[in-house]
Design a protein that fits this description.
Blueprint lengths: L1 H13 L8 E5 L5 E4 L7 E6 L3 H21 L3 H10 L3 H78 L38
Antiparallel strand pairs: 1-2, 1-3
Helix pairs in contact: 2-3, 2-4, 3-4
Length: 205
């Protein structure tokens, strides 16, 4: 008995409420039972619940609201307004139109936010690429500057050597690179003459 009651309750919940609220118990020849909202063809059908006038009216009203909602969502407002007038649903029409406007406004706002976020992300990506390119150019410029400085130093060194050779033909740049005895010298006068650099001749004399 308890299984039968549970089956009846489940049948009531599964039957669409926008249609008939009547419930029929249909018994097959093998004894299996099913439930429907109308008599089953060729099967024994027993009325479990008969739809009342209030339920019929409620179902009609619910169905009308669904149709009205479909017209509004399809943006067929002229037809929706006519439908509302025909079925005395003016208040419901105004309420649903207001709800639809709010819904559309929220969707538009979300789309704008998504668009702005995408544009901002794209702008950030472009800016990041520019920064990376600028850093690369700066590194390359620093590298070129170092190389140029190196070349200038080498040129200055060569120029200095040329000047020394021009003014001091006997000038030997390797002279001062010779090894000097590491033994400390107590008396400056005891320094060998070979280690004492000769004063280069003055070209002005």
């Amino acid at each position: 008995m308890s299984h039968f009651i549970c089956g009846v309750v489940l049948a009531i919940l599964l039957i669409p409420q926008a249609h008939s609220a009547s419930i029929y118990k249909c018994t097959k020849k093998d004894g299996k039972v099913t439930f429907a909202d109308k008599p089953c063809d060729g099967l024994k059908s027993t009325v479990i619940h008969k739809e009342t006038a209030a339920e019929i009216q409620q179902n009609i009203y619910t169905e009308q609201l669904l149709n009205l909602q479909r017209l509004i969502e399809a943006e067929q407002l002229t037809q929706a307004k006519k439908f509302a007038v025909q079925h005395n649903l003016a208040k419901e029409y105004e309420a649903k139109v207001a709800q639809q406007k709010i819904k559309l406004a929220e969707e538009k706002q979300m789309q704008e936010q998504a668009k702005q976020a995408a544009e901002q992300a794209a702008a950030q990506a472009v800016e990041q690429a520019k920064q990376q390119s600028l850093q690369k150019q700066q590194l390359e410029l620093q590298k070129q500057q170092l190389e140029l400085q190196k070349q200038r130093t080498e040129l200055e060194k060569q120029k200095l050597e040329q000047q020394q050779r021009l003014f001091y033909p006997n000038y030997d740049t390797s002279y001062y690179s010779k090894s000097v005895p590491t033994t400390p010298i107590q008396d400056i006068n005891s320094v060998p003459a070979a280690l004492t650099p000769m004063n280069p001749p003055n070209p002005r004399r």
